[in-house]
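Lab manual, section 2.4: Encoding a predicted structure.

Procedure: take the sequence of the chain (756 residues), apply the prediction step described in section 2.3, and record the output as structure tokens. A sample record is shown.
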Amino acid sequence: MLKTIGVLFVAISTADAQVAPRSPSRIADSVLALMTLEEKLGQITQAPSAWGQTGPSADGAGERQIREGRVGSFLGIVGAELTRQVQRHAVQESRLKIPLIFGMDVIHGMRTIFPVPLAMAASFDSAATVRAARIAAIEASAMGVHWTFSPMVDIARDARWGRIVEGAGEDPLLGSVMAAAYVRGYQGDDLRSNTSLLATAKHFAAYGGAEAGRDYNIVSVSERDLWDLYLPPFHAALRAGVGSFMASFNEINGTPVHASDWLLTEVLRRQWRFNGLLVSDWTGVWELLNHGIGPDSLTAARRALNAGVDMEMSSTLYRNTLAAEVRAGRYPQAAIDSAVLRVLRAKASLGLFEDPYRGASVERERRDLLTPANRAAAREIARETIVLLTNKTVAGAPALPLRRTIATLAVIGALANDSAAPLGSWNGAGRKDDVVTVLAGLRRALPNVQISYARGVAIDTVRVEGAVSTPGITEAEQLARSADAVILVLGETADMSGEGASRTSIELPGAQLQLAQAVIRAARSASPAKPVIAVLMNGRPLAVPYLADSASALVESWFLGVEHGNALADVLLGDHAPSGKLPVTFPRNTGQVPIYYNHKKTGRPGIEKQKYTSNYIDALLTPQFPFGHGLSYTTFAYANLHASRDSVTVEITNTGTRPGTEVAQLYLRDDAATVTRPVRELRGFRRVTLQPGEKRTLRFALTPNDLALYDRDMRRVVEPGTFTVWVGGSSAATLEGRFTVTGDVVVLSPAPPRFR
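Recorded output:
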């Protein structure tokens, strides 16, 4: 009888949807009433794929789980034909015909791979981010994916941490803007649309503060830093309507996040009123045992579910331990029901009960994947993310843009002809064959220039000290002497950043520094001397003082996706003026990390070469390149700054001879408060395109929240006093103004749930 009721329910749901779709809550309530305890536990279990690329596993384990209602979601099943096959088992062969939800890490594109998220943040362009995420959602949904584990909105200040590549860098405002943009792009205007993906804000929370930059490590964080630094991007994703959150691997204040009822329930559910789906990270529930939380699997399962983790990814502690506890009266079924309802609501919000396949088809894959329009978008967006770090004068002119009149060009470095590196980590369904390499992009852009290539040295994870002489370096030196100009491509391979890719040294890996030194010496010794343009490909800030000092120009190109080579050529040749800005500070050496612009003053602020201040005795205090830094092929001047508590206005003028786009940045400091404040904080930014000689007045609105802080009682308040503002092209801006806030302390919000 129950089987018949389940079939009738799905049929009625579908029929009703043709007239007016029922609300996700009503659908979830209806389905829950029909479910057995085992089916409920199945719904809150996400299994890794039991299928290969072409079909099911030989033992039929995946099909059995589905037929028995023991799984609610799969991770990593992709492709329209395969997902339709797997979904068919659920909606035709299981008792209640509840559709599966297919999740995947769609991080910076599906088949059309866009710049990695750290690079996207360098654009300071939320519209470009929405555009990239929208294309990714269209492509992924065509391949049968419903749910992406993106955006990663972790703030990161330590370049040793490999996953810095997946986020927006070190600043909470920029991180918040990018978080909201990704959510809007993935989810679109209507989650029920078959071109939308359910987005996930991860990793909740403070995962980017991993101690020693080591992945999966603990995070030692104060309550104040948590609210000031790490939580704002998550709240921005929430305000943008994100459908799910993912718990983080780390612990906070002695409690692993997967067991933190304070963070997941008191903060996320009660204070922020999030009613969506909360998923564990991969085996995050099981890993509570490694953390030492409880003596057995049952304790770990209870702690995680009580804390608020609705769905268990990859491990099966919920499914294997809780049924007996409920039947024995030792665990409340209501706790399981709450989690199941949120899973079912997520499925209903995606329209899976009306169309379990959501229009995924082989025909859509052929039509929607890697289209010419998508490639054009990837190229346009990638150009915005490239950062010009230095550009010296060579023979009376800037080294960049490169002259098209040169006869010969030497391209040197293994990464220049690497089709895997531009895809970066977590590259969806991207393929190396789709990638335009640096070498290929330059050859396309310069068909009349003789371009020679030398690989140079292998890129090893171990940094080589001292002099190195190899046939590859000798060949590179010869090319550098004979060519009119040199493009030297250095950095990391794709697998040197990302998850599980922490590094103790963020200098150039392998013998690349020795290659650079040899090439630059050879180019300088030629007559006439040849310009050497150093191009970085990497997923984290690198310490490259030699290149900053010695290369004719230094360009940060990150991992830009399928159009890497074309986009880079556009910038190097001046078809597109660089406008990217660093979303993270670049240190001079590994010993400076963690390093970030919005630090505190301390009682003895650092003064260069002055002992007994917060300083180093063996290196400069300042970074190689500050947060927000980035040059163009023109110059910009800022003047006439006027500041008040409500707004800041400033004039910006293109003082060069070429059109250009500048990212104007507003920074603010509360000069004297009841608690210590950062030396400055980003409070606004604006992309401005100006013609040569053009002047424009910009106005930045200030809200009470821009002036607010958490006081000693952790209330969000605006305190009276003076505020200093700066506006310019980076966090090192020098044009400043001041205003005063008078009156009493204004309380914007009471204290959040106290840290525990």
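Check your result against the sample. The domain at 382-592 is CATH 3.40.50.1700 (Rossmann fold).
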